[in-house]
């Protein structure tokens, strides 16, 4: 093995180690952020949750906000991957249309009722409200997720020969924000009655697709 090859292998190993460290910090920090908030979460506690010292944090992130953004980015990517892998299976199953749509919205909104993730999302959105710099980072991630959901809802409508009565982007935004609002209420004041908001909105804003003229 030449000196150059050895050096390259060492660099690759260091890169893999750093990537693994970063992933563990991202995965472990959601619970701490949910409990303490972004500003209130001690860096030492964030590191301890992942089994690292403070040095691991500063080797991967400049600020706690950078880590919180990484948590949200990881969430968005994982939810889109799950949506991509699950949609075809749902469409081929015996599930009715409203159930499929509910699975889409529930899955990308609360990650099967993971309130820690929901809390981090709310923390980031509050930070974005206060800072245009944070807003510029969070907006494209949110738009990426919304775009994936819009595509999925369009696929469901097409499979059932339906069309939206409002723009697809508006439909997506209404469904996601309405259901997200329910989750926020649940987090703040406890369980609330399930109002079946997703099936209701689907029925309200879809209709049989009109046949194109020959």
Radius of gyration: 21 Å
Structure annotation, total helices: 9
N-end to C-end Cα span: 70 Å
Range of helix content: over 70%
Strand order of the largest sheet: 1-2
Number of strands: 2
- Give the oligomeric state of the chains in this entry, treating copies of one chain as homo and distinct chains as hetero: single chain
Indicate the mean pLDDT: 84
Domain HTH tetR-type: 19-79
Keywords: DNA-binding
Organism: Kocuria gwangalliensis
Protein name: TetR/AcrR family transcriptional regulator
Structural features:
214 residues; mainly alpha; two-stranded antiparallel sheet; 9 helices; elongated
Describe, in plain words, how this protein is organized in 3D:
The protein has 214 residues and is mostly helical. The chain is built from 9 helices and 2 strands, in the order αααααααβααβ. A two-stranded antiparallel ribbon has the order 1-2. Helix 1 (3-36) crosses helix 2, helix 1 crosses helix 4 and helix 6 crosses helix 7 (132-159). The mean pLDDT is 84.
Question: What is the fold's blueprint, element by element?
Answer:
Elements: H1 3-36, H2 43-50, H3 54-58, H4 64-92, H5 97-110, H6 115-130, H7 132-159, E1 162-164, H8 168-189, H9 197-204, E2 206-208
Helix pairs in contact: 1-2, 1-4, 1-6, 4-5, 4-6, 4-7, 5-7, 5-8, 5-9, 6-7, 7-8, 8-9
């Amino acid at each position: 093995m030449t000196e150059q090859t050895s050096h390259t292998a060492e660099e690759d190993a260091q890169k893999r180690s750093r990537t693994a460290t970063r992933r563990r910090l991202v995965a472990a920090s959601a619970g701490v952020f949910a409990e303490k908030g972004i500003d209130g979460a001690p860096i030492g506690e964030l590191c301890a949750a992942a089994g690292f010292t403070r040095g691991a944090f500063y080797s991967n992130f400049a600020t706690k906000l950078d880590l919180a953004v990484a948590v949200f980015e990881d969430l968005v990517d994982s939810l889109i991957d799950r949506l991509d892998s699950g949609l075809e299976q749902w469409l081929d199953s015996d599930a009715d249309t409203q159930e499929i749509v509910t699975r889409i919205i529930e899955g990308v909104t609360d990650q099967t009722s993971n309130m820690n993730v929901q809390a981090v999302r709310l923390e980031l959105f509050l930070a974005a409200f206060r800072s245009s710099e944070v807003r510029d980072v969070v907006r494209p991630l949110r738009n990426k997720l919304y775009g994936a959901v819009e595509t999925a809802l369009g696929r469901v409508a097409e499979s059932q020969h339906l069309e939206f009565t409002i723009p697809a982007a508006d439909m997506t935004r209404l469904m996601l924000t309405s259901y997200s609002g329910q989750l926020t209420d649940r987090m703040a004041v406890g369980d609330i009655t399930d109002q079946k908001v997703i099936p209701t909105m689907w029925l309200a804003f879809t209709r049989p697709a009109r046949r194109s003229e020959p």
